[in-house]
Amino acid sequence: MNRRRYTSLLLLLASVGSSALAQSALAQSAPTSLPRAQSAPASLPLEEFAARRDALAARIDSGVVLAFGGRTLVHDFSTFYQLPAFRYLTNYDEPDAAFVMVVRGGKGTSTLFLTPLDPRTAFYYGTRADSTNSEARYGLKGRSFAALSGVLDSLANTGLPFYHIPDVETTDFARLDTLTRGRETVKTLSRAHPTLQISNAMPQVLEIRAKKSDAELQLLRRAIEITNAGHRAAMLTANPQHEYELKAALEFEFTRLGAERPAYGSIVGGGANAGTLHYMRDSDPVKPGDLVLMDAGAEYRGYAADVTRTIPVTGRYTPQQREIYELVLDAQKAAERNSKPGMNVRAAADSSEAVRVRGLAALGLIENEDALYDPPWRVNCESNPASCKQSNLWMIHGITHGLGLAVHDPLQGTFSDGTFQRGDAFTIEPGLYISTRSLQALPDTPRNRRFIAAVRDKVKLYENTGVRIEDSYIITRNGLERVSVVPREIAEIEALMAQRRFQP
Q1: Model pTM greater than 0.85?
Q2: What is the CATH number of the domain that holds 147?
Q3: CA distance 420 to 199
Q4: Is the pLDDT reported for residue 6 higher than 50?
Q5: Nearest Cα to 351, choosing from 362, 364, 340, 366?
Q6: Residue 323 maps to a domain
Q7: Residues 173-216: pLDDT tens digits?
Q8: In terms of CB atoms within 10 Å, which of 13, 202, 235, 419 comes out highest?
Q9: Separation between Cα atoms, residue 20 and residue 382, nearest integer Å
């Protein structure tokens, strides 16, 4: 962006009263600029999608694979984005399509079933692929969606088993899938063909997705580079009065640098809100003395980054905030040391947990490293005492998940020996969330009364100190690489935030 355009942007922002964005821009002596990553392709080659389908066919051996893409939106308040599994196999990024692959002897023949728009609707939303151009554009033969029902009925009579890929946005919520088009189609097929064998093929697709190709990693790197710039812009936002001002700074940079959208709902929680793990209202005031937890990532060509930073509103951490922050950072670094190729994923998480447990005991926030409590959720402490350790109250979530077309993508070790492997992309995100609200949520039991009496005063000392530090990593031939190079040391963050230019 040249200087004249930059000045004009600031004037425009000021004229419409967008103080948060204007201050964010003024806080930087020059706008953030990313070099155009020569290694980041505009899209993946069609051959890569064909190889993915071949890999799935080899696992199926013989059968019919059925998948549905996303539906047309029933509102005009957002943009259509394809379901990850469907996009992974087809590269098709338009609504109202289905994919059928007939596999015999490990070799598949694939067809897209498409729903072109009528000419009048196309004036509003643009044209879609149809049977005349789908092969040239996607490497897949196309047919009318209207033919799908008859084709499926005919294939059901061949004796081949069916493999259905659920049409869910993320496997995190797959168990709630009861009314999608795919699920309804499977029900209809089962009623019409009672002996038809229908299996869930999502596990096979996830196993293939787990190892990222070099081209996928290039797209992921770009998503993470853009995310880095967004977090830096938020740290440089002067005089934030509300959470949404920091969210605006993050997402402005995401869009300006070419991301299609945030990879998930941006989490910007100040003070007590930092303790709500998936807080997405991002609407409350932020006050001097608060920490603000910012968990936000960009999505680039469908690939999701995931980065979290916890910053002080004033630009300086208090002594108590520093203690908790350094403990979380030490825990992240412990997991990094144990997240090399061939190392066990569970062991890396355990090393991070051990650091935090020792620190919590030293700070007086638990009675001792092995002390138990009675959780406010169902668990049998007698048979599973590890789930009832007092430390779990302050560090409620896991620390590692894969990255890819979904922000929670699989890792290769999930399907084999549980180790990190070359081609893995993932996060490490330890956290600690200290609040008397957590104590108040505990059931009234003798063990909990002792726990509360022992730690209540210390908890008040660290009240509403929620800290999460999360970075995005890739396993390469050279080992572990941290790609999210946003400042994370206290001195680095405070030095960057000292560059903010405050407005009267």
Answers
A1: yes
A2: 3.40.350.10
A3: 29
A4: no
A5: 340
A6: yes
A7: 666 666 789 999 999 999 999 999 999 999 999 999 999 999 99
A8: 235
A9: 52
